[in-house]
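Deviations from the work plan: none for this task. Representative record:
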Amino acid sequence: DTAVSQTPKYLVTQMGNDKSIKCEQNLGHDTMYWYKQDSKKFLKIMFSYNNKELIINETVPNRFSPKSPDKAHLNLHINSLELGDSAVYFCASSQGQGGREAFFGQGTRLTVV
Amino acid sequence: DAKTTQPPSMDCAEGRAANLPCNHSTISGNEYVYWYRQIHSQGPQYIIHGLKNNETNEMASLIITEDRKSSTLILPHATLRDTAVYYCIVRSSPNAGGTSYGKLTFGQGTILTVHP
């Protein structure tokens, strides 16, 4: 059983399109995150939700809009995709905002052409 | 959160202990040391964390110096599957709550290569 699952695993799309990445966790955690890993392999947090409430928003363009329909899901919608959005996006979850360990999904490799 | 410094890369022979150092000279009293690793094309994986005492679990041991300005992650018997990027992260108490305590600030990490 996958603890944190993301779909799709790969996503290739053209500039200007709108796309969504879905994330689900079956760990019963109350906090979920989105991280971005760019081509230089730097991992940076984008958003954090605790009990469906936005807690962290790290200077991410407005084109990125996270949505948490319930505690087990945190989806990422991206409007007007740009070449620079190409990266691997990781979803993660933990129990509590300062949870001891975060569990990460396998990532979604987004390529904008 | 305090900044960490790690060597960019290290090698280790299979079966030997891998000792990965981390400097965190600006760590404050309520900050923990966390270690994660990322195996190629996978999501980061939690390894271990500690405050000031040495810690051990089924994956690794964490040795923190008395002044807490540096630490060492020890993989006692490295295998080829331990080849990965290892990240040392300093962050506030897991019980502190607040608006930023949940985030992990990843640096460049150490690329550990375990060879036969």
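Chain A has a mean pLDDT of 92.
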